[in-house]
Amino acid sequence: MRRFAQVAGAVAWRSIHNVATNPAFLLPSIIFPMFFFVAFAGGLSNVGNVPGFDFPSGYTAFQFVFVLLQASAFGGVFTGFGIAADFERGFTRRLFLAAPSRTGIIAGYALSAWARATVVGVLLFVVGLATGMQVGGDGVDIVGLILLAYLVSLAATLFAAGVAMRLRTLQAGPAMQMPVFLVLFLAPVYVPLDLLAGWVHGVATVNPFTPLIESGRDFISGSAAPAAGAFAIAVALVAAFAWWAVRGLRRAEAAG
Amino acid sequence: MTQLPNGIEVEGLVREFKGGIRAVDGIDLRVEPGEIYGFLGPNGAGKSTTVLMLTTLLPPTAGSARVAGHDIVKEGPAVRQAIGAALQEAALDGLLTGRDHMRLQTALQGVPKAERRARGDALLERVGLADAADRKVAGYSGGMKRRLDLALALVHHPRILFLDEPTTGLDPQSRSDMWQEVARLAHEDGVTVFLTTQYLEEADVLADRIAIIDQGRIVARGTPDELKAEIGRPSLEVEPAEAGSLDEVAGVLARFGLPVTARPGAVAVRLRGSVDQLPEIVRAIDAEDIVLADFRLHAPTLDDVFLAKTGRKLEGGEPAAEPEVVPA
Amino acid sequence: MIEQILEMARRSVLQTLRQPALVIPPVIFPLVMMAINTGGLDAASNLPGFPADSYLDFAIAVPFIQGSLFACVNAGSALARDVESGFMKRLAMTPMQRAALLVGHLGGVMLVALASAVIYLVVGFAVGMDFPAGALGVPAILLLALLVALAFAGLGAFVGLRSGSGEAVQGFFPLFFVLLFLSSMSLPRPLIEQDWFRFIATYNPVSYLIEGIRSFIITGWDAEALALAFGIAIVIAVGGVAAAASALRTRLVRT
């Protein structure tokens, strides 16, 4: 356990240090969510007036939750890009040689994704509040929302790590990005679930991301809806993708 | 300047870049029709800049040049019609096949439509790429790319061929194949070849005449033998098997040249004559019943020529970057 | 000259077809996004003043513009690659005229854009899109789509030639992406609530390009929308191609 923690800490430190000394690496993670927030909450705010759209905290808060979770998920994907790049440069070999616990390597990457998600999340909150976003939830609700965001970040990172470890090349980018993108957008992005139309409604109903985003919106609006189901799904996703990532790690080890 | 229809004449050519950097600082040279002219120099000496000017891709700042009898500034299109060039970058499109490249080049060069396919195939065959012709260039080896580059330069039967470091990065076999082809072009087809290189051996083996360029100026010119002879005679270093025979060896060698510094346990002389003396020297040593441990001939190289002219070695010296040609 | 143009166009088409990553995403991705957005934003068609009966009719115009964006990046990247690899020098050594290079290259990109536009139309019809412009509207909408693609491709070619760097061209993609979002892409301008957003959308030329294509599907023949769309597309196309030609003059240096 101690070795696992040591390795995780070291790998996380390296990733965080790289980003801290090259702020440009962080820019896409910040700019895209900001932009989506502005475009969706700003440009589509009238959608909140659609008949049947009853969200107590207003359209800005409605979109804020999606953008926050989207940013957390894409932060995980960007971390996956970094893992793929490390493979391509041969740096992972150095990690494999040196690290007494190789699963700690994955944990280290996940920790750095959390660090990224924290920075982006704080900035988003600041911008949201500055633009007059209404927050109906209390402190506990906001903690719940933040926990959800961290779980989404972890799930996405583990998914991307599993892909990166299997493909071991930067060309794996689209293979990480596309599935996450589709899962995020085949959900109640612009309107609540019951206002979705056609096949998108059907897909969103079974999409595991849907209960997460709905719970997040419940948190920010302070509604008393139970969140246990959403957290159970999030934890299940993390567990599934953790297995996926570790299997990927074994494949990478076997490939040499 | 007299006009050489298949030659190159350069007078006071200068190319200056931003910041006053003179990549080419007033060079004069003359390449006779049908010869292979080697342009030798370290990285950053001005070779590629010279080639870019002579192939009309970069206007000179001062001076003049005629290539194939045409002025490089005033008669650009006529120059380009008469020359072929394989420049430093292989400059190929990885998504096209060898045959696609041929098709494009023959069409752009104005080869009659009926002849394009045949000419392209013949050239691909000539450079040994017939089997790979329908593979995308991205999958070609470095040697294959260079060969395709050469074939493309020959599409319109140029009278003068410019080769800018044609074998850099190639393995010895590919390099040797390229040399053979270049020699054939010059000696059998009568093509004038202007070849830049940083490899002494390449210039020595291929070129009829050489100019050595350093920091934008020509520091030496002549045939390889003339240049080496300018520097000095070869030296011979002999090590007897028994240390006691050292004086005897020195006595024999003194008949053939003047003593020079040698390794401990050996004797060296700079020969009065040429390497033709070697059999005589061997017989003389043998006549004294001296047993040898080592027998070394040091012939001057072009590196020695460069060292004598510039105070630096040509190979393994500090590379200076040629200024990047950035559009204004 | 015609032959040179055809050869360069042929090469441009070959380059695109031989890189599946350049063919599939530009065609598939806009359609997928449209499908998602149509389902996700169908409720918006219930807003008072929404100009179409279904969000599909409103949204189908967007793939045409998104496809043009990809054309822009592809055009620019290919030319930047030619500069980086030295292929431009090879072309400079031939009697090929500069205009032939640009026209041929852009022509190839246009062919691919035309194929994409036809696919978008076919898909649109297949999923029940209205088309009040009638039979004559089909060539007209394709012509406008081509002009828009030419406009973006010209800009992309300019960036590619001027910078000589594929990375610089890729760097422009987010910029155009932003322009696309800050337009009447998702909602008609009168229904954009936020003043600042509506202001930007009103002065964003991309809004009018989308609205012009959209007008074939919602209105039929809307003279004002079409005049604005064609006018803006032509201005950007002429400007972009002129800028690209100027950049090519600098790249294809020869005496």
Description:
The complex is a heterotrimer of chains A (256), B (328) and C (255). Chain A is mostly helical and 256 residues long. Chain A has one domain. In chain A, 77% of the residues lie in helices and 0% in strands. In chain A, helix 2 (27-43) packs antiparallel against helix 3 (58-89). The longest helix of chain A is centred in the first third of the chain and has 32 residues, at 58-89. With 328 residues, chain B is α/β, with parallel strands linked by helices. Chain B folds into 2 domains: 8-92 and 140-228, 3-Layer(aba) Sandwich (Rossmann fold), CATH 3.40.50.300; 233-299, Alpha-Beta Plaits, CATH 3.30.70.260. Chain B contains 11 helices and 14 strands. In chain B, the strands form 3 sheets. A 6-stranded mixed β-sheet of chain B has the order 6-7-8-3-9-10, sandwiched between helices. In chain C, helix 4 (61-85) runs antiparallel to helix 6 (98-126) and helix 4 runs antiparallel to helix 8 (166-181). With 255 residues, chain C is mostly helical. Chain C is elongated and about 65 Å long. Classes of the chains: A mainly alpha (256), B alpha/beta (328), C mainly alpha (255). At the A-C interface, helix 2, helix 7 and helix 8 of A face helix 2, helix 8 and helix 9 of C.
